[in-house]
Fold each of these.
Amino acid sequence: MTELTDLGIAAIRDGVRTGAFSAREVADAFIVRVSQAKALNAFLVETPDHAIAAADAADAARAAGQALKPLAGVPIGMKDLFCTKGVPATAASHILEGFTPTYESTVSANLWAAGAGMLGKLNMDQFAMGSSNETSYFGNVISPWRRSGGDNAALAPGGSSGGSSAAIAARLCPGATGTDTGGSIRQPAAFTGISGIKPTYGRCSRWGTIAFASSLDQAGPMARDVRDCAIMLEAMAGFDPKDSTSLDLAVPEWEAGLNPSLAGKRIGIPREYRVDGMPEEIEALWQQGIAWLKDAGAEIVEVSLPHTKYALPAYYIIAPAEASSNLARYDGVRYGQRDLPAGAGLQDMYAATRAAGFGDEVKRRIMIGTYVLSAGFYDAYFTQASKVRTLIARDFERAWESCELLLTPTAPSAAFALGEKQADPLAMYLNDVFTVPASLAGLPAMSVPGGLDKSGLPLGLQIIGRPLDEQGVLNAALAIEQRAGFSARPEAWW
Amino acid sequence: MSIDIATVKKVASLARIAITEEQAERLAPELANIVGWIEQLGEVDTSSVQPMTAVIPNHLRLRDDVVTDGGVRDQVLANAPVAEHGFFAVPKVIE
């Protein structure tokens, strides 16, 4: 029999429903895997009791002949950016050490209401700032993937949702929550050979999710395939009056709507995404993706998104600016760590607490944000970036006149080695070149595995859709998934 | 404008982050490099463009002006590094 930990969300849900195995057996199997995978450093907190309680509830419901909830018997991982009641949450920072939320985020509450259980809180880049999971205060997450040919260099699992991507790729959980501000679901999914979707901004409530850049932050699911993402997104999404930007719309039945036929669909290839220095393998995969979509019945059209090159610099004004405001709340007064030098006054306490509590990348972004918002510079930087953001969104609107979806690579390279890009913050930022534009425009976008590079590492393709067209995005991703036949998995060394 | 050490110290002070002289010296070229890169936005003609305020068209909702939450003082204080007599406690600010 297949190992239970090799099953995805749909297979676990269906197996629990039919009684092929019990939810408790599934939970126990994953709990063991999590406890044996410390070398990956994917989990910050393990919560086996939570997973077991949810599993027992699912088994009891089945025994009593009740209809099972959508995620009954499915244990998942929770990115540490989500507050879950009574379980420490740090956003992988030192400054929030000791913080135990007394409330539940809307997204996690929705998942528990759907019957899911929690295996633990997942490591990430500190406050979701990073693309390699190297900014966590609690150490790097190590990707379960290694290059072929005996190269045992530790690789980045992507970021910021690197604990989520590593845990899913290593079969420590069948699915996990992620959050995406500039690519933090899609890039780690691409690096680890899994799927992940960032829905339209406003689909998932931000309430109870530790804030990074509020106009960009959006939660979404990460899992091993497209169907599993659809199932999990249905449970996570929904209107929430506690989030002022939550969309007051019914949640579509994305799983039921899955359809890999793209007949009559026009899919755009943005010519500006052909960047200098992009590895040939990425270009080749992109061409392969085009062929797969044609095979599924789609018509391919070339489109232009002329302001693409300005998306990254605009993002690195807007996101740090919002972060500098959001992270002002960490003051050593209300939660987390306090650093009070002898004889210090209140202002000195703030400064010492924040100096000791934030990592280098977080400080860097807070300072950039403070600088671009400061008197005399606000218009030149923040207002100008907000105007460029309008132009970027307008580019997409023009593209939608000739197509329904866009196909691009997810990232400009396969996973790089830990430490490889750490010395130069700018080199790290450039990793998000293909994911940031959709974030700035609030569009749904998904990464799906397309194949392996010559070192045996996964590469991802990205589908970007119109606002609210998660179904179109999922369907095109499914068409690619069926043709890519991606079945590679990392060999267990941990 | 390039970012010098004095600017770094001013920004750090505005951001309430204590930094040492050495850190300021290290951060100045690093931040100058990043800011130099984002300054390429200046070449975009935005004279007829409005800044984006909402990424997905959405209207701000109104709700009834009634109390919907509260009465959870102990929960609010539960994570404070120092709380006394039902209040957050900080170093003395007024002599």
Amino acid sequence: MFEQFVNGIFWNFALIVFFAGISWRIIAVLRRGKPKDLSVPRNSGISGAIMANIRGFYPRKEIAPRIRMQVIAGYMFHLCLFVLLFFAAPHVTFIAEYITGFSWMPIPYWAFVVASEITFAGLVLLWIHRVLNPVTRLISRRGDHIASILVFIVMLTGCMALAQTSTELRVFHRFTVELLMIYFPFSALMHAIMFVPSRAYTGAWFGRRGVKV
Amino acid sequence: MSTLLERGVDKLKTQIDARVEAYFSSCTHCGVCAEACLFYTETGDPRYTPIYKAEPLRKVWQQEFTLLGKLSNSLGLNSITENDLSDWEELVYDGCSMCGRCSMVCPVGIDIAYLIRKVKEGMAAAGFVPDDLQSAGQRALEFGSPMGLTAKSLRTTIAVLEQENAIKIPLDVEGADYLCMLSSNEVVLYSEFITAISKIFSAAGVSWTLSSKYFEATNTGVQIGDSQIAAQLLERLVEVASELKIKTVISPECGHAYTTFRWDAPNILGRALPFNVVHIMELLDQLRSEGRLKTTGSFDERLSYHDPCNISRRGGVVQQPRHLLNQVAPNFVEMQDSMEMNWCCGGGGGVSANERAEPLRLQVFNVKKRQLDELNVTTLVTSCSNCRIMLEDGLEDNDMDVSVIGITELIADHLA
């Protein structure tokens, strides 16, 4: 019964909320509009937007020593999560079956274990930093903590499902993923998509002024 | 909702555009921006975290433009209050120099200075502006200058300079190629700037003038965050430049004047300007590259250059002052963090005009002190008169034996 619910109606509901929610958030940005910049540009805004999107992936040397922990933990978490999401064997099978219709080479089991451990470590470090650092403690909102906890639960149930190979655990993992999908468009998790226009707007602004980003 | 709050919220609502929506939608509250802000690094107070200063705007965005926020607001939860605005006045006007260093380091690319500028619009509409800035704004509207200087003050200064230096300073010359604006600082404190440009332009054969009708480069409306005042002051510039049939307006050694004239004015006025705008550094470097600005001798003391934030990071004029310095200063050394990642003097964005902020401003000057201590220079050069005052103030407060000069003055002293 629960398995049918998770694999059927709730999956469809989560998919609709996920894609409709993301589309709605993107449309909200576009709908809001932006007044045309009437100043005479010094350089191209488009190249600035592209450069800013690339430049944003690595920290500036001027502040890197002050944010070492966030950078290392951030990379650990995001890179390994990406690997797990798209290269863990069960995910490759699932994506091929339900989305793409074709599959690719998954990572071996030992790599899955290593990637999971690094992802967990990164997430926990970032969350501890969020709670203990006076700055992040002040500026964090309830949603930031909910997002961290949800991602943690999804990863935990995922690891449990893989290790136990039990249908119940796999279904429970899928259920937590669906909860995450429903929460995603309404939360700070949207940064996974919104960082692109955000960097582009700022990069274009600097680019027009001839400032190296 | 009180009238003040209603005015503030209404104004903040009008400030939310696609950029703001994308920025707030992508912020993960990582706190990296704090590490780039001198108000945080030098005080350790997390309230000075740049993105936290944009909190009033974020609250309005959330309660008016997001599904969960609208729901919370309808239940009376997490709504913005008048206290929010009054509490944020100190953070926005005393604890932010709008230097934009935070905008360079945000991992998701948020231009936080852009957000804070918009917060100021809401604060101004609600009347939460420091008294000193409000008075400066009134004087600017009444006299044309935040210091209350008039055409008579300018004429007196010009007469003294002409007599002392045996030079001719053109005033109200119709059809001149360039109109040079001045900040009040350059009329009252650093009039050597006027002497310097007169000598340089005379030697380079530049057709230029000052205007007695409206000479003020400082735009207090921008510092307050009141676009209406900003627009009124800019209209005076457009009127004077049009009357004198000016092709190009020169922004003097003043950081925010440059970004206001060059980048913000068309957007504040809603139309393209009928003239070009150049910063004095751009023009001097152009004259140098054309061979019209020739120098002789050198300034041999060990010196460094303080990048004014609005000229380098927010204005894009980075290499020009360095070209000029390399021509006359063989012992020019760069600070460790310079150019687009310079540290602010602490007095931008109207902080310098806000006496209440002085103790905080002098505290955050520590970062500049450390930079200078590392370099062991005897002279500091800059291209913004406001930075110059802040630097002199900070150096004096720290008993540091470093003199501060403007580049234009340095170049004029070495004219061939």
